[in-house]
Specification:
single chain, alpha/beta, Alpha-Beta Plaits, 7-stranded mixed beta sheet
Length: 280
């Protein structure tokens, strides 16, 4: 096993101490923000040291190659992009704080997702459809490293799937903009240019995200071991459970407890070093 250490600022003394604790045979520089400690092993004290130094860490099996992965599946809100779309829509009618509280409870797994979405959408009834374009144009930003990660996986021939409890207005545009292979999200109902406070068809919840992932995996004829996934909320856990490598990105504790790795300080491009034990 190799131990990958990543962070915005990696102090030499911390790196050497982690290497000592893990019994690593050598320290290899991967980039300005990533190092690989070769032939390392888990040991008491590593988790605490990394947490105190604001470093992400993960043990990567020797021999793992980026091309072993055939599909990358991602959540959208607060994962691929920095915002929660529905919270920003609510801001257009001065209800962001109220809606954000419901969103946060749902992401922590405190309330059932379908219920939370219905409650939030009901508050948006009557909102002009043009607000969707305003949010896309003015507020949508990619998470740090997101575009770099997507470029890396594209070069490796890895397919991409975006599964979101958000809305097709955003995912359709992102699919074209950043060349995603598949997307799946909720369809907002609009009448006379206004949101009705409902969605068309079934709500894209945790089960629907998982089902879409399994459908795409079947189409590509790939196994669980060939899938990598990243998400941040409780409604991502079911699809993450179907991934050979799962990553919690700036995630809620309930998600971090059930994934292969957690990225609390690094950008999404840090996934690249967790998906491969090689430099190419």
């Amino acid at each position: 096993m190799h131990l990958v250490i990543q962070g915005a600022e990696i102090e030499t003394r911390d790196l050497k101490e982690i290497a000592k604790l893990s019994g690593a045979g050598a320290i290899e520089r991967l980039s300005d923000t990533a190092f690989r400690l070769k032939d390392a092993r888990p040991a008491a004290g590593i988790d605490k040291l990394c947490a105190n130094a604001k470093l992400d860490h993960g043990f990567v099996p020797e021999g793992r190659k980026l091309t072993d992965c055939r599909l990358l599946v991602m959540d959208m809100d607060s994962t691929l992009i920095t915002m929660e779309t529905i919270d920003e829509l609510a801001d257009m009618v001065n209800l962001k704080a109220e809606v954000a509280r419901i969103t946060a409870r749902a992401m922590r797994g405190e309330i059932e997702y379908d219920q939370s979405l219905r409650e939030r959408l009901a508050l948006l009834e009557g909102l002009d459809e043009s607000a969707l374009q305003r949010v896309y144009d003015e507020r949508l930003k990619f998470s740090p490293g997101a575009e770099q990660l997507l470029e890396q996986v594209r070069r490796a021939g890895i397919k991409t799937l975006l599964v979101s409890g958000g809305f097709t207005y955003m995912t359709d545009r992102l699919k074209t903009r950043i060349k995603l292979d598949y997307t799946h999200s909720n369809v907002l109902e609009v009448k006379n240019g206004k949101l009705t406070g409902a969605v068309i068809g079934e709500i894209v919840n945790a089960d629907a995200k998982r089902a879409m992932l399994l459908k795409v995996a079947a189409e590509l004829n790939i196994s669980r071991e060939q899938i990598a996934g990243v998400g941040d909320g409780a409604n991502d856990l079911k699809f993450l459970a179907e991934c050979g490598v799962s990553v919690a990105y700036r995630a809620k504790p309930v998600v971090r407890e059930h994934t292969t790795y957690a990225l609390n300080h690094s950008g999404l491009d840090a996934m690249r070093w967790l998906l491969s034990a090689e430099n190419t």
